[in-house]
Amino acid sequence: MVTSGTPEKDTRTQTVLRAEDPRSPATISDVARLAGVSKTTVSHVLSGRRPVSDATRAKVNRVIEELGFQQNFFATGLTGRRTQTIALVVQDLTNPFYPALARGLQQTMAEHGHVVLLADVGAGVPPVGAFLSEAVQRRVDGVVVAAIDISDEQIEPLRAAGIGVVTVGDPRRRTTTDVISSDDERIAADAVAYLHDQGHRRLGIVSGPPHTAPGAPRLAGYRNALRAHGLRPLKAAETTGDWTRESGAKAMTALMDLERRPTAVFCANDLMAIGALDAARVLGLAVPGDVAVVGVDDIDAASLVSPALTTIRVPAQDIGRVAGEQLMTRIGTPTGPARRVLVQHSLVVRESA
Amino acid sequence: MVTSGTPEKDTRTQTVLRAEDPRSPATISDVARLAGVSKTTVSHVLSGRRPVSDATRAKVNRVIEELGFQQNFFATGLTGRRTQTIALVVQDLTNPFYPALARGLQQTMAEHGHVVLLADVGAGVPPVGAFLSEAVQRRVDGVVVAAIDISDEQIEPLRAAGIGVVTVGDPRRRTTTDVISSDDERIAADAVAYLHDQGHRRLGIVSGPPHTAPGAPRLAGYRNALRAHGLRPLKAAETTGDWTRESGAKAMTALMDLERRPTAVFCANDLMAIGALDAARVLGLAVPGDVAVVGVDDIDAASLVSPALTTIRVPAQDIGRVAGEQLMTRIGTPTGPARRVLVQHSLVVRESA
DNA sequence: AACACCCCGCAAACCGGTTTGCAAGCAAGG
DNA sequence: CCTTGCTTGCAAACCGGTTTGCGGGGTGTT
């Protein structure tokens, strides 16, 4: 600001009406004084917990406007019950599934005027317990848990504190919280049905760890679907990976070594499917000519590999959205039976099958 | 606890010493009463702002332990200055660069006992202004801005509120805040040097938007490097994309249409480079045989495409770490000259060049 | 005119900490 | 024996809101 210097004090802010110290934010007392009413009345205007006459309300609102008054977050939190804050705990942000989930959740919560605390607990920093206890201390309204490593016991303190909890991705294990997840058995069934449609009769699977969340149901769905189509699940054609690309390549190699090798392979996620493509290339097998491959998730990379991956799309962002909506209703009614929501998937046909 | 029932009141929690309501958390008054001292003394034990005798401190600490007392976040925040909270504003979580950044930042902040508020402002929800004002209201200690859409004017209120600000990725535009970024001119120079080493003499570029953050310096670096190697930058061989895969394909097609078409193309990010690979495939050109391609970022997908992308790796997670460290020192000393930190990149040679 | 009732606003207590001013206890110094 | 100064702890005010109990004034009923 290039002006002639005023020797005394510069009035650099434009808050004309502020009577006291112009640099600290306006308080409810300032509003009350300038509006000629009591703090109580201002508070009632703000919260609407008791009726206030139109004239008074208008006057108060005008002063609030002029002063740019905002309620002090901490003063409100000291007595109030809600903090308009939720926490999101994810397993590993570098896995593309979670950022998409986070984005959907964050948008939904923002629409409801809530703010999101984020913790990626995959690397052990912060420790799960420490973060959850922070969340309790900060009186978050709710928590979305999208991290398979977290047990019911670790969640218990949240529920004890009256905090809404929604978990993502583990429909069998959680008995006490709302759960949002993909319909994992049907995902596997749909993949098998598609491959069967394409004429494949000898199928194999690269499953996830068989006792964890999406691993078990996808394996079960695969087996059931085979039987439903009159095929017999062969133990030999069931391999296991740990969701990584490398494990997928290894499992695929094993499958291709079989006497009667499968003509189509269902991989329980895209990263392992991409690994399977790696293995096929190394072995000199054409995809889908010699062997077809189907994945699950539809991560961005699925369309980048060559051949582009046919996959079952699991809409992570929508899951985040749904988790947010569910959390909002859960915050409203903390008790009540746990709800399970299955989010719809869809088949994305590309080149690999 | 299986004991004979005491008819009067059940002591279901194990907090033997709690006198009052056993279900609401312990307060500092509880601690004071049980320790036989005043609130003041307990507060001093907690904060260490005044000396307390060893005996008293031990006694107080024991009671704190027994009660599981934790300071009320809101009561502390009402008077105290620090909230152990920072905000992270990112442009678009579905761009793999940002989750990696977020992870690094979050880990660093967790090590310092801070919690991260996350906002993805790419979709306009929440609006930037609204989120930043929320951050001010919640008295965050600092903000990391990793969103190119945010202007200095929008950041000003933060600085006015004494909040530390660190921006990521825009070393020229920000004059008032600390900036962490990649060394974009040298990234381009290194890419050009590598291609020159490989014998390429006719180069082209798919640049980013020429007036935005990493777009301009990478283009400038490319031009300067050409001259440094005795080559003349050709306007015709300078195309522009908007960081997306599709725009990269389009730009590449234009380059390949040139009379004297480049034998090597530098793409200002990986997504556009992948688009360039798409275009080359469509045109029936072999990479790197007919034309070499180099990208920037080293996103996960870079190793998935075929041919695998040779690229300049920009360590997003490290940038997050560095931003966190810088923010911590900035929180400690709010004033002082703005600092710029350039994070080291590295060349990752794969198949495309 | 008397009574009940509702509407509206205020003063004061309270949430759970932090911070300040003061004083008692004690050891060292003169 | 009397200062001086340091250590240690307390009571009370304060941060900025929310909530409760109460009373004055206006309206409707009998």
UniProtKB/TrEMBL annotation, chains A, B:
<protein>
    <submittedName>
        <fullName>LacI family DNA-binding transcriptional regulator</fullName>
    </submittedName>
</protein>
<keyword id="KW-0678">Repressor</keyword>
<dbReference type="Pfam" id="PF00356">
    <property type="entry name" value="LacI"/>
</dbReference>
<keyword id="KW-0804">Transcription</keyword>
<dbReference type="Pfam" id="PF13377">
    <property type="entry name" value="Peripla_BP_3"/>
</dbReference>
<dbReference type="InterPro" id="IPR028082">
    <property type="entry name" value="Peripla_BP_I"/>
</dbReference>
<dbReference type="InterPro" id="IPR010982">
    <property type="entry name" value="Lambda_DNA-bd_dom_sf"/>
</dbReference>
<dbReference type="GO" id="GO:0000976">
    <property type="term" value="F:transcription cis-regulatory region binding"/>
</dbReference>
<keyword id="KW-0805">Transcription regulation</keyword>
<keyword id="KW-0238">DNA-binding</keyword>
<dbReference type="GO" id="GO:0003700">
    <property type="term" value="F:DNA-binding transcription factor activity"/>
</dbReference>
<dbReference type="InterPro" id="IPR046335">
    <property type="entry name" value="LacI/GalR-like_sensor"/>
</dbReference>
<feature type="domain" description="HTH lacI-type">
    <location>
        <begin position="26"/>
        <end position="80"/>
    </location>
</feature>
<feature type="region of interest" description="Disordered">
    <location>
        <begin position="1"/>
        <end position="23"/>
    </location>
</feature>
<feature type="compositionally biased region" description="Basic and acidic residues">
    <location>
        <begin position="7"/>
        <end position="23"/>
    </location>
</feature>
<dbReference type="InterPro" id="IPR000843">
    <property type="entry name" value="HTH_LacI"/>
</dbReference>
